[in-house]
Design goal:
Layout (H helix, E strand, L loop, with lengths): L1 H105 L1 H51 L4 H40 L7 H9 L1 H10 L2 E6 L4 E7 L4 E8 L8 E8 L9 H4 L2 E4 L3 H14 L2
Helix pairs in contact: 2-3
Protein name: DUF7806 domain-containing protein
InterPro entries: DUF7806
Organism: Erythroxylum novogranatense
């Protein structure tokens, strides 16, 4: 029996060792796999952490870039709003001025009639003054001798009766009035000659031919103005007033500005009329196509608008 027990015990120990060895092998395999899993998980976690850090850095960079772009856009928006406000104010002032001048344009014909009548009256006065001054040199001796004879006659009669003294005083007053009228006519004639000489300088395209061409080529003021506005200028005397024609050579855009005379103490006005739009036919704004009347104080804004249109469509 003991031998049987011993044999069974040995067999049990052998099975037990075998079982334990198998379990150890399984545990070792599981441990190796677990370690591999742990190392792989740690590597993956580290990779994800690195990727997260990279994405966070990129996100921060994008946020800072968006903030800078937004700041620049806000500044540009503010600047554009200010420019838009200024432009709207200028347009409002210009529209108010245009409305005011359009109302005044209705009275332009009456002003032109008044100006033409006044010019005719001035011409008549100038003609009469020329006749008087022409006859003055011939009849001055006669008038003086007549005055002397009248004075001597009245002085001779004055010693006889008192009414002669009264007539003598009347004669002196009348002679003084005549001399004052002659002086006024002579002064108007001088003014007329001076204005004609000035008009000879201003009139660049009237009846004068080569003389006017020489004046325009030698006029530094005209050359300076043409250089400043980039247009060729010429002036013509019309019944309405002095008309200035402007031509932009590269685009064939041409217009005229007529000087409208006003009463004394009032600011003169200009009437804008387009002659041809040239290459600006399709792109010209509405105000360039219509007739306008504006004051001299609006000239800088008017030429600024024209220069802006020319620069935008070169």
């Amino acid at each position: 029996m003991e031998a049987l027990y011993t044999k069974l015990y040995d067999k049990y120990n052998a099975l037990k060792k075998k079982k334990l060895s198998e379990l150890d092998e399984i545990n070792e395999d599981q441990e190796v796999k677990f370690l591999n899993y742990v190392s792989a998980a740690e590597e993956l976690i580290q990779h994800l952490r690195d990727e997260n850090d990279r994405l966070c850095t990129k996100l921060n960079d994008l946020r800072s870039e968006v903030a800078s772009v937004r700041c620049n856009n806000d500044e540009r928006c503010t600047e554009y709003q200010n420019l838009l406000t200024e432009e709207n104010q200028k347009n409002k002032k210009l529209f108010e001025e245009v409305e005011r001048l359009q109302k005044l344009l209705q009275d332009g014909h009456s002003y032109n009639l008044k100006n033409s009548r006044s010019e005719n009256l001035q011409l008549n006065v100038h003609e009469s003054s020329q006749d008087i001054t022409g006859a003055e040199s011939q009849g001055s001796v006669r008038r003086r001798t007549r005055k002397r004879s009248r004075v001597e006659a009245w002085t001779g009669a004055g010693s006889v009766s008192s009414p002669g003294n009264h007539q003598y005083d009347t004669l002196i007053v009348e002679s003084a009035k005549i001399s004052s009228k002659e002086a006024c006519l002579h002064e108007e004639l001088c003014k007329d000659q001076q204005s004609e000489s000035c008009m000879g300088i201003v009139d660049l395209s009237g009846v004068g031919g080569a003389k006017n061409d020489t004046c325009s080529s030698n006029c530094p003021f005209q050359a300076l103005i043409e250089y400043l506005i980039g247009m060729k200028l010429s002036a013509v005397n019309q019944t309405e007033g002095i008309c200035i024609s402007a031509l932009h050579q590269s685009s064939d855009y041409a217009f005229s500005l007529t000087w409208v005379k006003k009463a004394a103490g009032e600011e003169p006005e200009l009437v804008y009329r387009v002659s041809t739009l040239g290459t600006f036919e399709r792109i010209a704004p509405e105000w360039m196509r219509s007739d306008l009347m504006f004051s001299m104080s609006m000239c800088p804004i008017f030429f600024e608008r024209i220069a802006r249109v020319i620069k935008l469509h070169r």
